[in-house]
Amino acid sequence: MVEARRLALIQRQSMIADAARKQALRGLSEAIEAEARSQALAARSRALVGSSAPAPGDTTGAALMGRAAFTASLAQLATTASDAARDAARQSEWQAETLARIESRAKRLAERQDEARAALDAAKARREAAHEASTMARKLQSKRET
């Protein structure tokens, strides 16, 4: 029966779309978490750079160079974390768009599944009505012959 095969195909497509939706949700969640982690790391690194000002009093050249190297590496870490946060934000935006497309497809598939189910029910009803009509015709014909 064509209607049953069509319904089965749409159901399989819906299962695939549901799996893709879950994967897109997971990707979006991971991107949002990565963005938050990167932003937090960048903020902490900047705070450390700000608080690593030289202490008052005498310092040696080696201590000053060590502090400068530490501050420079913290500044580089903050920059890298900021770049990672921007990349994660772009990834998050892309994942949100992907999720929207997948949800739209899932909605269309659900509508098609409802239509296919209605078509299958209508075909079954027509077949049942035809069967009842042929049964009734046989009964009437057999009554006339007796």
Number of helices: 2
The helix/strand series, from N terminus to C terminus, equals: HH
Protein structure class = mainly alpha
Please tell me what the overall shape is. Answer: rod-shaped
How much of the residues is beta strand, in percent? under 5%
**Uncertain runs:** none
- What is Rg? 34 Å
Oligomer: single chain
Mean pLDDT: 88
- Helix percentage: over 70%
* Total beta strands: 0
Termini distance? Answer: 38 Å
- Structurally, the number of domains stands at 1
Largest sheet: none
Map the helices and strands.
Elements (H helix, E strand, L loop, with lengths): L1 H50 L9 H85 L1
Describe the fold and architecture.
- The protein is mainly α.
- Helix content is 92%, strand content 0%.
- It is built from 2 helices and no strands.
- It starts with a helix and ends with a helix.
- The mean pLDDT is 88.
